[in-house]
Amino acid sequence: MSATPRPGPDALQLDCAAESERITRWMVDMLANRLHRRGLVVAISGGIDSSVCAALAVRAVGPGKVFGLLLPERDSSSFSTERGRLLAEHLGIAHETFDIAPALEALGCYRQRDEAIRRVFPAYGEGWRNKIVIAGGTGGGINYFKLVVATPDGILHEARLPLREYLQIVAATNFKQRVRKTMDYFHADRLNYAVIGTPNRLEYDQGFFVKVGDGAADLKPIAHLYKTQVYAMARWLGLPEPICSAQPTTDTYTLPQGQDEFYFALPYAQMDVALWSLNHGVSAAGLGEALGVDAAKAQRIYDDIEAKRRAARYLHGVAETVEPVGPSPL
């Protein structure tokens, strides 16, 4: 009987050269034999995932067949756009910057969000900032969300979000990913290209994406890679240092917000270990030893992962029909 694998950073080591070759061969095959498209469109956020996807696309089909999109809006960090331009120039790809804020304004994105916030904090207005943070799940309870706002002079306030307000804020901010995806597919149609989706394994497994938003794509080349492995791939690919050292953020709310604040139970390096351990049958005690927590805490982390997987089934699902219709999917 083989021994139970041991969790930890060593378990996530990646042969980047071999993996890059495997992914790029797959991309070429998908384009030529399944999708029948001439090239690839990738939305570049300035983060590690989209940057690695863009670099792999260039390795697969060359810079002349990759089109990059930078799609900032009112709440985007200026650093995201700067890193996105840096990457596009580093890779030598054609790219376009398109401000989606006017479209979001017309759709009511900002208005709907702010109306929901004001039902919790009536004074919220011009010059205030906001974010949502997650709580509860790894403490043994049910996940719930808190709204954090900052006044123009920097005073922070927080309150537990009622379900109605939480859903409205999330629905409004989801416009951002859906408008961006509309732009991706406009250029894909214009060029006869395919659209790359950029989720890593944590995001794909745990449902950290918007349905018919950043979850929509023709190819998802790093959905099998843990976040730690994506960072390793970025360095192996020789991407610029500001990208390789960029910390994961949502870049969605006006207050700085890490992905672990908004959605994941732990910072990405620990989440990688936890997800890998669950996938490889490691006991809660074994995970606890790897993370330096007791077995009860580790079990709560496992329970939180499973809860998010259940919620993600809807996001991964396709439209239902009464009976099978037409040819099988690709």
List the topology elements:
Layout: H1 16-35, E1 40-43, H2 48-61, E2 66-70, H3 78-91, E3 94-97, H4 101-107, H5 109-120, E4 129-135, E5 144-150, E6 156-160, H6 163-191, E7 194-195, H7 201-206, H8 227-236, H9 241-244, H10 259-262, H11 268-279, H12 284-291, H13 295-316
Parallel strand pairs: 1-2, 1-7, 2-3
Antiparallel strand pairs: 4-5, 5-6
Helix pairs in contact: 1-2, 2-8, 5-6, 11-12, 12-13
Task: Give an overview of the whole structure.
- This protein is an alpha/beta fold and 330 residues long.
- It has 2 domains: 245 residues, Rossmann fold (3-Layer(aba) Sandwich); 59 residues, no CATH class.
- Helices cover 49% and strands 10% of the residues.
- It contains 13 helices and 7 strands.
- α3 links the parallel β2 and β3.
- α1 packs across α2 and α12 packs across α13.
- The protein is globular, with a radius of gyration of 20 Å.
- The protein starts with 15 loop residues before the first helix and ends in a 14-residue tail after the last helix.
